[in-house]
Protein backbone atom coordinates (compact mmCIF):
# COMPACT_ATOMS: atom_id res chain seq x y z
CA UNK A 1 0.00 0.00 0.00
CA UNK A 2 1.32 3.40 -1.00
CA UNK A 3 1.73 6.05 1.69
CA UNK A 4 0.18 8.73 -0.53
CA UNK A 5 -1.89 8.20 -3.65
CA UNK A 6 -3.05 11.14 -5.70
CA UNK A 7 -5.67 10.70 -8.40
CA UNK A 8 -6.74 13.29 -10.96
CA UNK A 9 -6.01 16.04 -8.50
CA UNK A 10 -7.15 19.45 -9.70
CA UNK A 11 -7.22 22.88 -8.14
CA UNK A 12 -8.86 25.69 -10.05
CA UNK A 13 -8.60 29.31 -8.98
CA UNK A 14 -11.17 31.75 -10.28
CA UNK A 15 -10.48 35.41 -10.09
CA UNK A 16 -12.83 37.67 -11.98
CA UNK A 17 -13.19 36.25 -15.46
CA UNK A 18 -9.97 34.29 -15.50
CA UNK A 19 -9.66 30.69 -14.44
CA UNK A 20 -6.34 29.18 -13.50
CA UNK A 21 -5.86 25.46 -13.33
CA UNK A 22 -3.00 25.65 -10.82
CA UNK A 23 -3.00 21.86 -10.41
CA UNK A 24 -4.39 20.11 -13.43
CA UNK A 25 -5.22 16.42 -13.22
CA UNK A 26 -2.20 15.12 -11.35
CA UNK A 27 -1.64 11.44 -10.60
CA UNK A 28 1.18 10.49 -8.29
CA UNK A 29 2.17 7.76 -5.87
CA UNK A 30 4.51 8.34 -2.94
CA UNK A 31 5.85 5.32 -1.09
CA UNK A 32 6.91 5.32 2.53
CA UNK A 33 10.55 6.35 2.70
CA UNK A 34 10.56 8.20 -0.62
CA UNK A 35 12.56 11.39 -1.05
CA UNK A 36 10.47 13.06 -3.72
CA UNK A 37 11.51 16.25 -5.45
CA UNK A 38 8.92 18.12 -7.51
CA UNK A 39 10.75 20.54 -9.73
CA UNK A 40 9.27 23.25 -11.89
CA UNK A 41 9.37 26.92 -12.83
CA UNK A 42 7.60 29.73 -11.03
CA UNK A 43 3.83 29.53 -11.35
CA UNK A 44 3.81 25.86 -12.34
CA UNK A 45 1.63 24.95 -9.35
CA UNK A 46 4.21 23.50 -6.94
CA UNK A 47 3.05 25.36 -3.83
CA UNK A 48 -0.57 24.66 -4.64
CA UNK A 49 0.21 20.95 -4.93
CA UNK A 50 2.07 20.98 -1.61
CA UNK A 51 -0.78 22.84 0.11
CA UNK A 52 -3.19 20.19 -1.10
CA UNK A 53 -0.85 17.39 0.03
CA UNK A 54 -0.48 19.05 3.41
CA UNK A 55 -4.26 19.29 3.74
CA UNK A 56 -3.97 23.07 4.10
CA UNK A 57 -6.29 23.55 1.15
CA UNK A 58 -9.00 21.51 -0.54
CA UNK A 59 -8.89 20.35 -4.14
CA UNK A 60 -11.50 21.36 -6.68
CA UNK A 61 -11.69 17.71 -7.74
CA UNK A 62 -9.74 14.49 -7.52
CA UNK A 63 -8.53 12.68 -4.46
CA UNK A 64 -5.65 12.30 -2.08
CA UNK A 65 -5.29 9.13 -0.09
CA UNK A 66 -2.91 8.98 2.84
CA UNK A 67 -2.55 5.51 4.36
CA UNK A 68 -5.38 4.45 2.09
CA UNK A 69 -7.76 6.98 3.63
CA UNK A 70 -9.39 9.60 1.47
CA UNK A 71 -8.45 12.80 3.25
CA UNK A 72 -10.82 14.95 1.17
CA UNK A 73 -13.64 13.39 3.11
CA UNK A 74 -12.16 14.26 6.50
CA UNK A 75 -13.77 16.86 8.73
CA UNK A 76 -11.70 19.96 9.51
CA UNK A 77 -11.02 18.59 12.99
CA UNK A 78 -9.74 15.31 11.59
CA UNK A 79 -7.59 17.17 9.06
CA UNK A 80 -6.08 19.27 11.84
CA UNK A 81 -5.30 16.09 13.77
CA UNK A 82 -3.68 14.55 10.70
CA UNK A 83 -1.50 17.63 10.21
CA UNK A 84 -0.52 17.65 13.87
CA UNK A 85 0.38 13.99 14.08
CA UNK A 86 1.72 13.04 10.71
CA UNK A 87 3.01 16.09 8.90
CA UNK A 88 5.90 18.51 9.31
CA UNK A 89 6.11 21.71 7.25
CA UNK A 90 9.14 23.70 6.16
CA UNK A 91 8.83 26.89 4.14
CA UNK A 92 11.09 29.15 2.11
CA UNK A 93 10.82 32.03 4.57
CA UNK A 94 11.83 30.59 7.88
CA UNK A 95 8.94 32.23 9.78
CA UNK A 96 10.87 32.43 13.03
CA UNK A 97 9.75 34.72 15.85
CA UNK A 98 12.53 37.35 15.95
CA UNK A 99 12.34 38.05 19.68
CA UNK A 100 12.74 34.39 20.65
CA UNK A 101 15.95 32.34 20.60
CA UNK A 102 16.29 29.27 18.40
CA UNK A 103 15.35 27.05 21.30
CA UNK A 104 12.41 29.25 22.35
CA UNK A 105 11.12 29.23 18.78
CA UNK A 106 10.99 25.44 18.86
CA UNK A 107 9.56 25.43 22.39
CA UNK A 108 6.82 27.83 21.28
CA UNK A 109 5.83 25.39 18.54
CA UNK A 110 5.76 22.54 21.07
CA UNK A 111 3.59 24.64 23.41
CA UNK A 112 1.27 25.58 20.55
CA UNK A 113 0.84 21.95 19.67
CA UNK A 114 -0.29 21.37 23.24
CA UNK A 115 1.37 17.98 23.30
CA UNK A 116 4.89 16.88 24.01
CA UNK A 117 7.75 17.86 26.24
CA UNK A 118 9.59 21.18 26.00
CA UNK A 119 12.86 19.26 26.37
CA UNK A 120 12.23 17.93 22.89
CA UNK A 121 13.36 21.34 21.60
CA UNK A 122 17.02 20.66 22.32
CA UNK A 123 16.71 17.14 20.94
CA UNK A 124 15.44 18.34 17.56
CA UNK A 125 17.98 21.18 17.47
CA UNK A 126 20.67 18.54 17.98
CA UNK A 127 19.30 16.59 15.05
CA UNK A 128 19.89 19.57 12.78
CA UNK A 129 23.31 20.27 14.29
CA UNK A 130 22.34 23.48 16.03
CA UNK A 131 22.43 22.61 19.71
CA UNK A 132 25.38 24.95 20.43
CA UNK A 133 23.58 27.92 18.96
CA UNK A 134 20.24 27.16 20.62
CA UNK A 135 20.32 30.32 22.71
CA UNK A 136 20.91 32.71 19.82
CA UNK A 137 18.26 35.01 18.44
CA UNK A 138 17.43 34.45 14.74
CA UNK A 139 19.10 37.75 13.82
CA UNK A 140 22.41 36.33 15.05
CA UNK A 141 22.08 33.21 12.93
CA UNK A 142 22.97 32.77 9.27
CA UNK A 143 20.23 32.02 6.74
CA UNK A 144 21.19 28.35 6.73
CA UNK A 145 21.11 28.21 10.51
CA UNK A 146 17.71 29.88 10.57
CA UNK A 147 16.42 27.30 8.14
CA UNK A 148 17.85 24.60 10.40
CA UNK A 149 15.79 26.03 13.28
CA UNK A 150 12.72 25.95 11.04
CA UNK A 151 13.59 22.36 10.12
CA UNK A 152 13.96 21.44 13.79
CA UNK A 153 10.57 23.00 14.43
CA UNK A 154 9.05 20.77 11.76
CA UNK A 155 10.39 17.71 13.56
CA UNK A 156 8.75 18.18 16.96
CA UNK A 157 5.97 15.71 16.21
CA UNK A 158 8.29 13.10 14.60
CA UNK A 159 6.34 13.52 11.37
CA UNK A 160 6.01 10.56 9.08
CA UNK A 161 5.88 12.99 6.17
CA UNK A 162 7.99 16.15 5.83
CA UNK A 163 6.67 18.68 3.32
CA UNK A 164 9.00 21.47 2.25
CA UNK A 165 8.18 24.38 -0.05
CA UNK A 166 11.39 25.87 -1.49
CA UNK A 167 13.36 25.07 1.67
CA UNK A 168 16.53 26.25 -0.06
CA UNK A 169 14.98 29.20 -1.90
CA UNK A 170 16.59 31.85 0.28
CA UNK A 171 19.95 30.09 0.58
CA UNK A 172 23.06 29.87 -1.57
CA UNK A 173 23.58 26.44 -3.10
CA UNK A 174 26.16 25.27 -0.59
CA UNK A 175 23.96 26.16 2.38
CA UNK A 176 20.93 24.80 0.56
CA UNK A 177 22.67 21.48 0.12
CA UNK A 178 23.39 21.36 3.86
CA UNK A 179 19.64 21.61 4.54
CA UNK A 180 18.92 18.92 1.97
CA UNK A 181 21.63 16.75 3.59
CA UNK A 182 19.85 17.03 6.94
CA UNK A 183 16.57 16.01 5.32
CA UNK A 184 18.31 13.16 3.49
CA UNK A 185 19.74 11.84 6.77
CA UNK A 186 16.32 11.91 8.42
CA UNK A 187 14.97 10.13 5.39
CA UNK A 188 17.66 7.45 5.59
CA UNK A 189 17.84 6.95 9.31
CA UNK A 190 14.26 7.43 10.38
CA UNK A 191 12.56 6.49 7.13
CA UNK A 192 10.73 9.80 7.21
CA UNK A 193 9.18 10.48 3.84
CA UNK A 194 10.33 13.80 2.39
CA UNK A 195 8.51 15.77 -0.30
CA UNK A 196 10.16 18.93 -1.57
CA UNK A 197 8.88 21.35 -4.19
CA UNK A 198 11.50 23.61 -5.63
CA UNK A 199 13.03 25.22 -8.67
CA UNK A 200 16.56 24.37 -7.45
CA UNK A 201 18.03 21.91 -9.93
CA UNK A 202 20.57 20.62 -7.43
CA UNK A 203 17.78 19.15 -5.28
CA UNK A 204 17.52 16.36 -7.85
CA UNK A 205 20.65 14.63 -6.57
CA UNK A 206 19.04 14.05 -3.15
CA UNK A 207 15.88 12.43 -4.51
CA UNK A 208 15.01 8.84 -5.24
CA UNK A 209 12.08 10.14 -7.26
CA UNK A 210 11.90 13.33 -9.33
CA UNK A 211 8.82 14.68 -11.05
CA UNK A 212 8.70 17.77 -13.19
CA UNK A 213 5.80 20.15 -13.04
CA UNK A 214 4.72 22.58 -15.71
CA UNK A 215 1.44 24.46 -16.06
CA UNK A 216 -0.17 22.40 -13.32
CA UNK A 217 0.74 19.09 -14.91
CA UNK A 218 3.42 16.52 -14.18
CA UNK A 219 5.73 15.96 -17.09
CA UNK A 220 8.06 13.07 -16.50
CA UNK A 221 8.94 10.68 -13.80
CA UNK A 222 12.35 9.26 -13.11
CA UNK A 223 12.96 6.63 -10.50
N1 LIG B 1 -4.93 31.85 -3.98
C1 LIG B 1 -4.79 31.97 -5.31
N2 LIG B 1 -5.72 32.60 -6.06
C2 LIG B 1 -5.61 32.70 -7.39
N3 LIG B 1 -4.58 32.20 -8.10
C3 LIG B 1 -3.62 31.56 -7.41
C4 LIG B 1 -3.66 31.41 -5.98
N4 LIG B 1 -2.56 30.72 -5.58
C5 LIG B 1 -1.86 30.47 -6.70
N5 LIG B 1 -2.48 30.95 -7.80
C6 LIG B 1 -2.04 30.83 -9.21
O1 LIG B 1 -1.85 29.43 -9.45
C7 LIG B 1 -0.68 29.22 -10.24
C8 LIG B 1 0.27 28.31 -9.50
O2 LIG B 1 0.76 28.98 -8.34
P1 LIG B 1 1.78 28.31 -7.32
O3 LIG B 1 2.00 29.28 -6.23
O4 LIG B 1 1.27 26.97 -6.94
O5 LIG B 1 3.09 28.15 -8.23
P2 LIG B 1 4.58 27.77 -7.82
O6 LIG B 1 5.04 26.72 -8.75
O7 LIG B 1 4.62 27.47 -6.35
O8 LIG B 1 5.37 29.12 -8.11
P3 LIG B 1 6.69 29.72 -7.38
O9 LIG B 1 7.85 28.89 -7.86
O10 LIG B 1 6.75 31.12 -7.85
O11 LIG B 1 6.48 29.61 -5.90
C9 LIG B 1 -0.12 30.59 -10.52
O12 LIG B 1 -0.55 31.00 -11.80
C10 LIG B 1 -0.70 31.47 -9.44
O13 LIG B 1 -0.82 32.79 -9.86
MG1 LIG C 1 5.64 28.32 -4.75
From TrEMBL:
ABC transporter domain ranges (all copies): 4-223
PROSITE patterns: ABC_TRANSPORTER_2
Matches recorded under CDD domains: ABC_MJ0796_LolCDE_FtsE (cd03255)
Record's keyword annotation contains ATP-binding: yes
A molecular-function term among this protein's GO annotations: transmembrane transporter activity
Pfam assignment, any one: ABC_tran
GO CC terms: membrane protein complex; plasma membrane
Keywords from the UniProt entry: ATP-binding, Nucleotide-binding, Transport
Superkingdom of origin: Bacteria
Official protein name in the record: Macrolide ABC transporter ATP-binding protein
Amino acid sequence: MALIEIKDLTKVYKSGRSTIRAVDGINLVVEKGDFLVVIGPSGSGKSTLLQLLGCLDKPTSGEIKIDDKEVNRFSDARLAELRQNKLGFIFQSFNLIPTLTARQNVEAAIAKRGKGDKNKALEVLEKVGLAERADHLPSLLSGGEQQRVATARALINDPEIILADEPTGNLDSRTGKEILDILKNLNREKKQTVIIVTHSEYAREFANKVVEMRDGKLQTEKI
